[in-house]
Structures are given as C-alpha cells and as structure tokens.
Amino acid sequence: TPASFPRLEVAEGETMLLSKKDCRCFFDQLALPANLQPWTARPPVLFAELVDIGEVPISLIRSLLQDGVRVREHDLLYPVSLVWCMGFAWSSYVAQSTLLDACRGAGFSDGIAICDSLPTPVGRGEAYALATDDVMHFSTSGPGLSKRRMDELDRELLERGLQKHPAKDELAVADGTCLGIDLCNGSYFASHAPRLASFIRAVLEVLFRGEVSPKGLNALMGIAQWMMLLNRPLFSALDAVYPFMRLEPDTEVRPI
Fold it and tell me: Average of pLDDT values for 113-119?
C-alpha cells in the first residue's frame, strides 16, 4: 500500500527514479485447477435461451462443455471460470505470489522489497514494491540500474509466458504515478493530483448540499483514506466520520 512509500528516503542531491511493469489482464492468465472450477459457477442459463435469444451457435456451446457432458434443449448450464477470476477470495494471493516468484527469478531479492511486514531496505540504493499485477522499482543509483533490472524482469516474464502491458511501462522517471500516488521531482510522494482535485470537488458538493447518505460518504472517504496512508496521523481527523458511515439504513440521506 502507499503506507510503505514514506519510509523511502532520498539524500540531498539524489534523485529517486521510478520504473514500472504491468501484466496485461493478469488474472485471466492464471489457469485455475480443474477441481476448483465448479466452485466458480455463475447463475445458470437455459441452453435454449443461449441459442434462441443469445444467438450462440450450438456447435460453440458444445465445444465449451466439460468432457463427457451432453445437453438438451431445456437443460440449465452453469458457466464456470477456467482462470483465477478477479474477486474470488484467493485470486489476489495467487496472482501476487506468482508475480513475486517471477521477481525473485529476475534477481529481485527479498532484501530490497518494501511492504508493511518487512524492514525497510537500508543502504541498497534501490527497492521494489509489488501489488498484484504491478511491479514498481525505485532507484537512487541512476538510470543504468533501473534499465538493467527492468530488462531482467522482461526476460523472466517472457520465459514464463506472462503477457505484459507495454503501454503502462515506465523506465527511470522522476515524475510518475504508482498505486494512485505521485512521485514528484524524484524527491517526495504526494496524492495523485487529478484524483485529489476530484475529491476536493466532491467534498465541496457535499458541504454545499449539507446532506449525504452514509453509503455515499463511505465511497467518498475511500478515496481520502487511500491518500491518508501517506500520512497516517490524518486518520484522526475522521473521528466523527466513521460513526456517521455506520448508520443504518446506509442509503438514507441525512444532514451533516
């Protein structure tokens, strides 16, 4: 989370460079074991409706059935996932573990990883963070190290058959965005400016109206809390907000 970023330090005269890699539709690349596939079933649909209303060719439907399964016109079909579908409880764990293993294969040691459960790397001149399908590398040792690390990661992803999202690649930039947080001038982190502007507009709208639902305020505070992870003491400013968000029914508009 962004809570790890403020622990990074840049000495006077140094510039921190950000590099990023992103995997394309990462969850859809991770095959789900056959014995778990039935547990991802969606609501059923009639075979006849797929053909008559959905205009799905019968040959296509039969090609997608599990081996040995036969269907009749009035049978119900339950769509299941062949991959670790996003939102399933274990999917993020599997995705992050897969990418973490790829980073290790590319030479990224655990000693330069930043996360809430590990000590902050000291004196290495580099660090990296991982969030499900994103890899972020931070370096104060110049663009040469950044390029070498990203090339090593590219080779590892290619060998594993993992598809990247080249349009989202960043290499050794002093101004960039990671996890919705901006690295500015290679020297400090700040809330992502467009998101902060939208948040301020939304707050002003709520104040102007003088009322909001607990659910609406909860959505608004979700943005605020993510930004506050850069400066945890700011959470103390929400002492009156949390009780309001717990009110029921949460869709009832109430004065503030």
Answer: 85
pLDDT digits (tens, 9 = 90+) for 198-227: 999 999 999 999 999 999 999 999 999 999
Angle, helix 193-209 to helix 214-228, in steps of 10 degrees: 150
Determine which of 9-18, 81-90, 150-159 has the lowest per-residue pLDDT on average.
Answer: 81-90
